[in-house]
Amino acid sequence: MLEDDRPLFLQIAESVEESIVDGSLAEEAKAPSTNELAAFHRINPATAAKGINMLVDKGVLYKRRGVGMFVADGARERLRGERREAFVADYVTPLLAEARRIGLSASDVRALLTESATTATTD
Question: Based on the structure, what is the number of domains in the chain?
Fold first, then answer.
């Protein structure tokens, strides 16, 4: 699962974030411990802790002393908001810039998106 060239602690953080966004790790649920993550991914517990601590710093997870880490209330919506912003920056803005360069109007782009979405759902 952890295979690309990005630092392992970032991959750990993103994996936990993905579980929150997709709903498999609910708000106020206990998050996997650093030891569980380290054992599962066969990495150093300090590396897993670094990823978890990133999420604590972001306010996605919080610690209950003596119990463990838990998903913060509102974490899912916060992460979804971050992803929406990244989606716009990474995909929508370049798409619209290219559309302008090749002479497509906003309504042309909407029509293409609608057509593509329809095609994608029927495949």
Answer: 2
